[in-house]
Amino acid sequence: MEIVVQLLQALASLGAMCMMPIIILVLGLIFRVKMNVLLKSALMVGIGFAGVNIVINWFVSQVSPSVTQMVANWGIQTSIMDVGWPARAAATWANPLAAVIVFVVLGVNVLMLVTKQTRTVMVDFWSYNHFIFTGALVWVVTGNLWAPLLAAALDAAITFKLADWTTPVVEDYFELEGVNFPTSNSVIWAPVAYLLNKVWDVIPGLNKLDMSPKGVQDKFGFVGEPMFMGFLIGAAIALLAGDNFQNIMIVAISTSATMVLTPKMMQILMEGLLPFANAVKDTLSKKFPDANFTMGIDAALTVANESAITVGIIMVPITLVLAAVLPGNKLLPISDIAYQAMWLAAWPVAFGKGNIVRGLLSTTIITCLVLWMATAMAPMHTELALAGGFTLPQGMALISTEDAGEHLIGFIMMSLAKFLP
Fold first, then answer.
1. Radius of gyration of the chain from Cα atoms?
2. Residue 180, SS3?
């Protein structure tokens, strides 16, 4: 079992850029995908993930100093440090139950496929870390074996069902045929976004207000294009930080570039992924004619959507304001604030058909919930991190991540586990 854990940790440590091509190669050989299609798909997916990571990480590096300065200018003081999603993922994979949960989730997926309870074939092994995180939280609370395994299995089952439910949205709105997003910290917010969108439908005035990147572009021409909107949003962030002219230009153009380059990098990724997904789907369809399988992949692909990018970037200062004024919140979301904001915006803009106004309203409400849950998870998150080898910064007693707060199922399972003997 230790060898399996080490192998999985080594695979996960490569990141999606290297891990996903390896997974595609292995699965392609199993499903007998033509070698020319398989090799091209594997390389293109790796290149696509590399491109997305380069753009997003570069954007975060350019904008983070201004965001940090905004925090200093506003005097935001919180007691829980956000250490970023990589630290959360590393602590998750280091958990003693990690390898066992991987096989439990695999078993759940196969069982649900055989019994026709899901159409989702979960091929994104990196995203198994979310199910492991749920199990790890319950493990910290209970200290026993079976409760964490059951929690992880339930998390996976719920996630696969929600992925099935959202497949039409993925195919229609995100224009990704034959795939869905069984990433538990993302798809669990789809029902919340759906219900909030129904609320906006019945509010007079708001239900008539429609603003999308395309609509703004059609109405205002170049001024409404993503590149110009990104420039204005970036400049606003830098101005709020009190930056000089040089930094204002850097942040503004960096934001503009992110709005333009991220979708283009995602097009490269999909150029590799879709032929592979279609080849696997064709093979499965021949063996199981009535199954209509869907390939489950990382929900990170949603950040390439223009509305999600726009709402996510606008949410950066809004999230900081929420962190400062939200009663009960103690987390300062700095490390991944830009990326997490785009991640949370995906389902609100999808159910709002790209409506930026609705996307902002729904994402703001969801962000409040995320901050509260991340605060509540801090003691368990800290214990997991310490067990995984993390060293607390001097003077810091608790750590958490905005990413942890997105695990709604994990939070519920952790809360219920406190009532177990």
1. 21
2. strand
How far apart CA 366 and CA 319 sit, in angstroms, is 11
Asked whether 232 and 251 are in contact (CB, 8 A), the reply is: no
Residues 384, 388, 392, 398, Cα dihedral to 10°: -10
Q: What is the end-to-end Cα distance of the chain in Å, rounded? A: 28
Give residue 240's pLDDT: 78
Residue 264 has pLDDT above 90, yes or no: no
Bridge partners, 179 (sequence order): 295
Whether 140 has a pLDDT exceeding 70, the answer reads yes
Residue 15 banded pLDDT, cuts 50, 70, 90: low
Is residue 374 within 8 A of residue 399, CB to CB? The reply is no
Average pLDDT (29-45) is 85
Give the residue from 383, 418, 417, 414 showing the smallest Cα distance to 400. Answer: 383
**Amino acid sitting at position 241:** A
Query: What is the mean predicted confidence (pLDDT) over 324-340?
Result: 81
Residue type, 313: I
Query: Pairing mode, if any, of strands 120-122 and 179-180?
Result: unpaired
CA distance 19 to 24: 9
